[in-house]
Write a structure and sequence with these properties.
The chain is an all-alpha fold. Helices cover about 80% and strands about 0% of the residues. It contains eight helices and no strands.
Length: about 200
């Protein structure tokens, strides 16, 4: 395995993991509302959920997707509806700096489930395994690299959110931030969903 292949694996993993998406938007929002420590369970769930999805796609699911492309469309539609719902919950949350209830803290299983319903995660898995599955060692190396970079990237969003509380230091700013983050989940996902339905 060449150095250029390793660099390509790292570049793809970083580009897909660090770019804004549903998981990262929820991580930064929870980091601001709940702090890094309470968000870390969600970060772990999202990372492990994605890694298991990547393993499944790499070792078999990609054959099903190639044979039945409607499968990916169904996942994308269900996932988009779920992301819109999460965006609504964030946008309408009654955030208060002095109150962080357990119900507002995203859980491990929610991060795990979100990746399996996240169209971006499926696209990343299909693209990655298409490029780096010429041999079992290459695929395993790619999975390990992606796992590490994914963990660091999602955690970075949560950590950034944690430190952003110095700026979002009152209830109005926090409420406005949640409204913006929720909208950033809802409207692009609605556009993606409508475009997907029109082109099926």
């Amino acid at each position: 395995m060449t150095t250029s292949t390793i660099i390509s694996m790292m570049s793809l993993s970083l580009a897909m993991s660090i770019s804004p998406g549903p998981v990262n938007m929820i991580s930064i929002t929870s980091g601001i509302n709940n702090g890094f420590r309470k968000t870390f369970s969600f970060v772990s769930g999202a990372t492990i959920g994605f890694t298991i999805l990547l393993i499944c796609v790499g070792f078999g699911l990609i054959t099903i997707i190639d044979t039945y492309p409607i499968f990916l469309n169904i996942i994308s539609i269900l996932g988009s509806l779920f992301i819109i719902y999460l965006g609504y919950k964030i946008a309408t949350s009654n955030s208060k700096l002095e109150l962080n209830t357990e119900q507002k803290i995203p859980k491990f299983y929610e991060g795990f489930l979100l990746q399996w319903l996240n169209p971006k995660a499926w696209i990343a898995c299909v693209a990655g395994t298409s490029l780096f599955s010429h041999s079992i060692p290459e695929l395993v190396t790619f999975i390990i690299i992606y796992f590490l970079i994914c963990y660091i990237s999602i955690a970075s969003w949560a950590l950034f959110g944690h430190h952003a509380t110095k700026i979002l230091n009152n209830n109005f700013k926090l409420k406005l931030f949640n409204l913006i983050m929720g909208s950033l989940l809802i409207f692009p996902t609605m556009y993606f969903l409508l475009d997907l339905i029109v082109n099926i």
